[in-house]
User: Which sequence fits this backbone?
């Protein structure tokens, strides 16, 4: 029988806010994801009940060259202010293309899109390197959202380059003061609110009662965000991404951000799979891969699964 309506289309290219090109992914049980070509920016991920799982600010601008506030900005070739480039690099405010002929990459999903970014001449003046950045965004059959980045050094001058990176994921939460993050306790972190000073996290799971902006180093491959009120747990599984940034601007900083509502900090939390502590260096012809898999499960989730000894990443 012929598919009726757009619901059955696994991958649909269409226009989003302000006429920007976007791609909608759908999987048969009903989950969806949306990716803007501007920034290769995932702006929506819903479960099979149609509930939005990512936070996007009601004040997000969707106006280049401003990055979209919320969803999953891609930070490359620089995370934050850890270098001489603009904050979080430039990949999040470039127009990406659909990669029609990507190098083979296995997937079980029918609902995915491959995007590619190559430097413009203007970019080369800021960061004089030639690269191919391929991003695959895929929805798994259970509604998991999977992002795989492949970055290749295509420099013809024989020079290596180094970069830092993050999937700057904004999760939607019911109430930040009811949220717990498991998997980062007892780890070392750089505190962006204390001049990147290095400290060690104490105690149990992280909870939130004020601004936080920390880069946890050498983190497990699995991190969980438990939202008690929603009875939902987000599980992040990551590969090639040893660090994790935790950010919430809280009330004062929120008020200084033009594209963020004053009270919206209550309903979001960024937990960002990243490479910050030890930048990646690629020689010409070399490729790096960084993979993030997100699932949202009911909170019967057993926290014992997060035994760090079992999930420690070789980094
Ligand atoms: C986080 C950084 O990843 O992103 C914070 O650790 C920063 O320091 C935040 O404030 C938001 O950055 P931006 O550039 O999107 O406003």
Assistant:
């Amino acid at each position: 029988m012929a598919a009726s309506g757009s619901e059955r289309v696994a991958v649909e290219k269409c226009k989003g806010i302000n006429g920007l090109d976007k791609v909608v992914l759908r999987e048969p049980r009903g989950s969806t994801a949306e990716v803007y070509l501007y920034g290769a920016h995932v702006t929506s991920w819903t479960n099979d009940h149609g509930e939005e799982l990512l936070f996007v600010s009601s004040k997000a601008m969707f106006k280049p060259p401003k990055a979209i506030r919320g969803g999953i900005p891609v930070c490359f070739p620089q995370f934050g202010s850890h270098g001489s480039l603009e904050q979080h690099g430039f990949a999040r405010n470039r127009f990406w293309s659909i990669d029609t002929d990507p190098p083979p990459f296995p997937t079980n999903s029918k609902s995915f899109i491959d995007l590619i970014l190559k430097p413009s001449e203007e970019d080369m003046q800021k960061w004089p390197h030639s690269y191919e950045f391929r991003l695959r965004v895929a929805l798994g059959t259970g509604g998991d959202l999977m992002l795989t980045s492949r970055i290749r050094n295509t420099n013809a001058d024989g020079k290596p380059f180094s970069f830092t990176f993050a999937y700057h994921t904004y999760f939607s939460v019911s109430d930040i003061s009811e949220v717990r993050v498991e998997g980062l306790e007892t780890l070392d972190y750089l505190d962006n609110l204390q001049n990147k000073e290095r400290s060690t996290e104490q105690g149990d799971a992280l909870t939130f009662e004020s601004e936080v902006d920390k880069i946890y180093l050498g983190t497990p491959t699995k991190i969980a965000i438990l939202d008690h009120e929603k009875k939902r747990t987000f599980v992040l599984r990551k590969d090639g991404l040893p660090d994790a940034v935790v950010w919430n601007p809280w009330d004062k900083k929120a008020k200084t951000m033009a594209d963020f509502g004053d009270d919206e900090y209550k309903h979001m939390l960024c937990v960002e799979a990243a490479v910050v502590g030890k930048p990646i260096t690629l020689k010409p012809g070399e490729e790096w891969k960084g993979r993030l898999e997100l699932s949202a499960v009911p909170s019967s989730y057993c926290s014992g699964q997060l035994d760090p000894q079992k999930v420690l990443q070789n980094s």
Notes: The radius of gyration is 19 Å. The domain at 11-298 is CATH 2.70.98.10 (Beta-galactosidase; Chain A, domain 5). The pocket of 6-O-phosphono-beta-D-glucopyranose is lined by residues 67, 80, 87-88, 168, 192, 213, 245, 247, 272 (CB under 6 Å).
